[in-house]
Design a protein that fits this description.
Blueprint lengths: L2 H4 L3 E7 L8 E2 L6 E20 L6 E2 L3 E2 L8 E5 L4 E8 L5 E21 L6
Antiparallel strand pairs: 1-8, 2-8, 3-4, 3-6, 3-7, 3-8, 5-7
Length: about 120
């Protein structure tokens, strides 16, 4: 990953209003984690944090929300007003990361992120 790409915000989901795999951030082998920001617009659904070592097989990974520190492989939202939440997703040794949406029944979400060197334990 180039230096410029490292500091560029990556879009995992853009105004997503349904279930979707979204975009996978690739070339992350040299990073220990990804900082993910999820912005909800009265979104009812679940974000699923996943990593892959080959781009085909995906594994759920415990992510840490910065506001509570309680690790989970998913983040559920129940129609809250527009807000943002930040998560640290561990990616050490993996090649790709994505944030998949599931169980979406209302609203939309935009999920962005960028590489980080924060050390977290799954």
């Amino acid at each position: 990953m180039t230096t410029a790409a490292r500091y560029t915000t990556f879009i995992f989901q853009s105004a997503q209003a349904g279930n979707a795999n979204g975009n996978a951030l690739t070339g992350i082998e040299q990073f220990t984690s990804i900082l993910v920001i999820a912005a909800q617009a009265a979104f009812t659904g679940t974000l699923n944090f996943e990593v892959s070592d080959d781009g085909t097989t995906w594994f759920a990974v415990n992510s840490t929300p910065l506001d509570t520190g309680t690790k989970s492989t998913t983040a559920a939202f129940a129609g809250a007003p527009t807000n943002q939440k930040a998560y640290i997703v561990p990616t050490c040794g993996m090649k790709q990361v994505r944030v998949r949406t599931s169980g979406v029944s209302a609203g939309s979400t935009t999920v962005t992120g960028r590489p980080s060197d924060a050390i977290v334990f799954p």
